[in-house]
Amino acid sequence: MKIAIVGTGYVGLVTGTCFAEIGVDVYCVDTNSSKIDSLNNGVIPIYEPGLEEMVLRNMKSGRLKFTTSLESCLNLVDVVFSAVGTPPDEDGSADLKYVLDVARTIGRNMTKYTLVVTKSTVPVGTAKKVRNAIQEELNKRNVAIEFDVASNPEFLKEGNAIADFMSPDRVVVGVESEKAEKIMTRLYKPFQLNNFRVIFMDIPSAEMTKYAANAMLATRISFMNDIANLCELVGADVNMVRSGIGTDTRIGRKFLYAGIGYGGSCFPKDVKAIIKTAEQCGYPMRVLKAVEEVNELQKQLLFEKLKALLPDLKNRTIAIWGLAFKPETDDMREAPALVLIHLLKEAGCHIRVYDPIAMTECKRIIGDSVYYAHDMYDAVLDADALMLLTEWKEFRLPTWGVIKKTMIGNIVLDGRNIYDAKEVAELGFEYHCIGK
User: Fold this and answer.
1) Is 231 in the active site?
2) Residue 194 has what pLDDT?
3) Rounded distance, CA 338 to CA 332, Å?
4) Strand 79-82 relative to strand 2-6, pairing
5) What is the pTM of this model?
6) Which residue, 164, 283, 280, 150, is CA-closest to 213?
7) pLDDT of residue 195
8) Domains and CATH numbers, the chain
9) Is the alpha carbon torsion for 160, 163, 168, 169 positive or negative?
10) Residue 92's pLDDT is what?
11) Are 63 and 22 contacting, i.e. CB atoms less than 8 angstroms apart?
């Protein structure tokens, strides 16, 4: 089978590469010529563990190709996946400009039956718009060519995307014809050796499933952060509370960790989009509005704790460990680190940052307004306080004796609750975390 993936961002590149890995001939398409040139030269534009090796292996085999022209490969393929970006508009709704551009390009150039699959996260009703855009272009050409549209939302976790794709716990596919269902069944059949099943449903339900899943996970995070903040006020320990409720099989343990809020490319954008979709339907998403509010306030929490400990922050030196919104990625979209750096700069602080992967991305976003440390110990040099923002593995067992000698102050603010409070305090630090 031959397929095209339009968009070589995080979702498109991982999807195309993983399909190539199981023997599908894949054309990855992007209008960004410099990105395509880089990919053709073996330079991967994103960080994802294991992805570079898989891309290079499948390029060498000839199963994975990169091009700027959808027109050149459109009639060689059976399926076109649209994995282009859907950035939020100012009002929070998803911008479908790129999705519809792909649809129009297909309509202007297709000459045979094609299954068009939306992989991007899109609002309910997008498939209808895609179908209409394709049909309008066919009408302009005065030709009648059969085609189908489908929805196949992604459920990839950054830092674990390849494993998620190759061994998924479920694949959701929305279709409106038997022919489309057969094609998608054939495409995903190799993955069924891992005993998962493709869940077929109508297209609106598939489109809603993606938003509902991310909204639920975001809700669990904000709920636990709300509980953590209350725990601090009443003298409870949120880690104990999490253990107590996580053992309830109706609740489970996942996404119940207290911290400084969620970020990334999915949760913030998708929560905003589903709220906007509901508003357009005349329905207020009261729970999700609260989820969003809690999350935005939570990103400021470490700054508020620091300000209570050091009321005069002007010319203080603050060390930050971790910039990415989560470990195993360089993604800083909506990262708590950006909020905290902004607040610290406004307060007149000198900021020293270190992240194993995201330093280049941070420099691209905020420039040279902070000091980029060579390693985690360079970051704490002469620091009045240390903030842990991302729970990278290398931060889990630091040499506290070296840190004690290197810092001027002794304040440690643990935004991810990864350290033993008693142990750190016994070493002479003033330790503060979330929910204790």
Assistant:
1) no
2) 63
3) 8
4) parallel
5) 0.89
6) 164
7) 67
8) 2-201 (3.40.50.720), 211-297 (1.10.1040.10), 299-432 (3.40.50.720)
9) negative
10) 72
11) no
Residues in the chain where the model's pLDDT stays below 50: none
What are the structure tokens assigned to 174, written together? 């929305």
How much is the pLDDT for 95?
86
What local confidence, expressed as pLDDT, does residue 432 receive?
Answer: 97
Instruction: Name the active-site residue from 18, 28, 266, 349.
Output: 266
